[in-house]
Amino acid sequence: HYTLITGLYPDHHGIIDNDIADRNIQPEPFRMTRPHTTVDPRWWSEATPLWVTIQRDGMRAAAMDWPNGYVRIDGARLYLHRNGKQAGNAAEETSTVIRWLSLPEDRRPRLILLHYGAVDHEGHLYGPDSPELDDALREVDAAIGRLIAALEQDGLYDDADLIVVSDHGMASVPPGQKIYLDDIIDPRAARIVTLGAESGINPRRSMRGDEATAALLEPHAHMRCWRKHDLPEHLHYGRNPRAPALECIASPGWIITTHRARTPLTHPLRGDHGYDNLAWSMRALFIAEGPSFRQGLVVPPFPNVDIYPLLAHILEVAPEKNDGNFSDVEPMLKPGGPLNGRMHSP
Fold first, then answer.
1. Gap between the Cα atoms of 228 and 232, Å rounded
2. Distance of CA 235 to CAs 13, 61, 118, 159, Å?
3. For site-directed labelling of 90, which of 83, 123, 182, 280 has its Cα 20 to 30 A away?
């Protein structure tokens, strides 16, 4: 999510995983599932999200259940944000956004970020091909339909650009396909930072840690490990100081865990993401509609870092330094650029 709104790869914006160890900031690791560990602005200070940039330009931005939407970055906070009780309920989340759209024009946000989490949640629990995920898709589809109906009712639809995007794909995880790190190394020889489709590991500075490193770098049937500086270039990962010393990536459909791992990996996972980004199942969704976009166009795949310069162009703000390539997405836009300030809605 931070890549979508900064146009930077994790190596460059610093949010390298859902769990991050950085004792220069705080002894307790950053954990997505523990919001109190994520509020320190220093975690997010290696990048400037788009909502900070546009608010500096005098526009307003809002976010519904968007990761880090509650954090003050560069001294700035979102004009409107909601996170917590409504998260995960697409109907309630949409109702909040509709209320924001009903604000007078001088108070209405120019950019609204809306995160629906149901599809991801059901995909993890039941798998990408499950009836439960199909139900979640219908729930989100209905919520987007209701949002479009509200835009039409308020006379905003013709001036609104809607972009539907996902931050990752989802691979099916058959039962029993687990790789146990503690069958390969002595867990006392390393600090295991993350588990799942990928695992970040910091071996101890000792002979035992060296042995663990050597064991992990050996070939494994359904997992490959690298020293972080040796990771394949297409992963765009491993140069940030927060990145663990070793990175292991499972084959799609396999999970890296330990025999002692606590939730969520003790619960059956039927789907996961975080595998090699060249895997077809990791591809993300992109659909755009509105006055800025050409109609009926199907474009070649492009990296999610390109969405940031696309949004900056539509909002008519100078983008911060980013890893995106505007030329990748420019062909999807109508000639003539943004509508000369006429777009007052998200």
1. 9
2. 15, 31, 27, 37
3. 280
Per-residue pLDDT of the chain (346 residues; tens, 9 = 90+): 999 999 999 999 999 999 999 999 999 999 988 889 999 999 999 999 999 999 999 999 999 988 888 888 888 888 898 875 444 689 999 999 999 999 999 999 999 999 999 999 999 999 999 999 999 999 999 999 999 999 999 999 999 999 999 999 999 999 999 999 999 999 999 999 999 999 999 999 999 999 999 999 999 999 999 999 999 999 999 999 999 999 999 999 999 999 988 655 546 789 999 999 999 999 999 999 999 999 999 999 999 999 999 999 999 999 999 999 999 999 999 997 654 333 333 3
pTM: 0.93
The closest alpha carbon to 311, from 293, 284, 285, belongs to 293
Would you give the end-to-end CA distance of the chain in angstroms?
18
Q: Residue for token digits 């330990």?
A: 258
- What Å distances lie between residue 313 and 152, 284, 292, 308, CA to CA? 24, 22, 10, 9
Q: Which of 41, 89, 88 is nearest to 68 (CA)?
A: 41
